[in-house]
Amino acid sequence: MREIIVENLRKRCSFYAELAEQVDDETINAELGVARHRSLGLHLWCVVGTRESYAKAITAGAMRGWASSVANFSRDEFIGKLAESSRALLAAIEAVAEWTPERDKLLAEVAEHEVMHEGQIIRVVFGLEKALPASCHWAVCG
Question: Domain locations in the chain?
């Protein structure tokens, strides 16, 4: 089962990378006129921070706090940070020699987080009347 979760994480990392490549700064920072809206940039900031934090947590075997290194909500920053955080997370997972119940829990949590934001991002991108990458197979229902 772990292999399936990791493979799905890889696919999600590719989706986010493709999305960052195709949007511009205006789209990243655009606001929808609805209550409790978060911009695409805020979602991506959270994805990067969670990947960074969970890479450290999986390595340590326990959560060590949360932080995002994103300082500038721009296309170029997100392209770089999404790639770096993806590599860090996948490398941390691949480096685990002993999978404990806590590490399995951390892996499940980061995978769930990626899926949650993908759904939110689909809604934001559709709300902005923009296209999603073809790699986003959930979007075909929209």
Answer: 2-141
Q: Which residues make Cβ contacts (< 8 Å) with residue 90, sequence separation at least 6?
A: 6, 9, 10, 13
Tell me, yes or no, if the pTM score tops 0.90: yes
How would residue 113 be classed by pLDDT, with cut points 50, 70 and 90? very high
Return the CATH class of domain 2-141. mainly alpha
Q: What's the CA gap between 55 and 67, in Å, rounded? A: 12
Residue keyed to tokens 């991108």? 125
C-alpha torsion sign, points 15, 102, 95, 67 = positive
pLDDT, tens only, 32-52? 988 888 999 999 999 999 999
